[in-house]
Amino acid sequence: MTIDRPEAPARTLVVVFGAAVRADGTASPALLRRVGYAAAVAEADPRTDLFLSGGVGTYPPSEAAVMAELLHGTVARDRLILDDVSADTLQTVRAAASYARRHGYTAIRTCTDAYHQPRVRMLFALLGLASRPVRMVARGPRPLQAKMWMREAAAIPYDMIAGVNAAWRHRR
């Protein structure tokens, strides 16, 4: 005799990557944009939780704390996971991957600007997790966009090596 057990509902973790906090403690345009897109995804699906990541940068408070404050009243507090320790992309991906595995998430979505998506998704893949991007419309002047794409192009080889090392240590 076989007993059918109901399967746990599919749950999605949206990893929201931090961006600068201004001197007055408010969100930069990039941080506001990322939080806005993440909120829309969470509002559309109650099985989606938000992993808000970013420590204290040049100015306090932490990027994660600023994101949580922006989401107050929009997304329930129990659907927000704050990672206010991670200081870079690799640390965020490692923390989110660990959290997702421990808590049984079936899907990961990455919420960051388009120029950042290739590196983020590469790092998740190196850690053995598939991810899908939250599609965001590019904003800002073209020279700034070009600068950010160039920065990412330089960061990918570094994070490729660091990500392989992280994956290797994780599998040991």
Secondary-structure map with pairings?
Elements: E1 12-17, H1 29-44, E2 48-53, H2 63-71, E3 80-83, H3 89-102, E4 107-111, H4 117-126, E5 132-133, H5 142-171
Helix pairs in contact: 1-2, 3-4, 4-5
Overview of this structure, please?
- With 172 residues, the chain is an alpha/beta fold.
- It is built from five helices and five strands; from the N terminus they run E-H-E-H-E-H-E-H-E-H.
- The chain has a five-stranded parallel beta sheet with strand order 3-2-1-4-5, with helices on both faces.
- Helix 4 runs parallel beside helix 5.
- The radius of gyration is 17 Å and the shape is globular.
- The mean pLDDT is 90.
Keywords:
single chain, alpha/beta, 5 helices, globular
Concise synopsis of the structure shown:
This protein has 172 residues and is of the alpha/beta class. The protein is built from 5 helices and 5 strands. The radius of gyration is 17 Å and the shape is globular.
> How would you describe the shape?
globular
Strand order of the largest sheet: 3-2-1-4-5
| Count of extended strands | 5
Calculate Rg over CA atoms: 17 Å
List the total number of helices: 5
The main pleated sheet reads as: 5 strands, parallel
Helical fraction equals 40-55%
Strand content: 5-15%
H-E order: EHEHEHEHEH
Overall pLDDT confidence:
90
Q: Ranges with pLDDT <50 over ≥5 residues? A: none
- Report the end-to-end length measured between terminal Cα atoms: 40 Å
Kindly name the structural category. Answer: alpha/beta
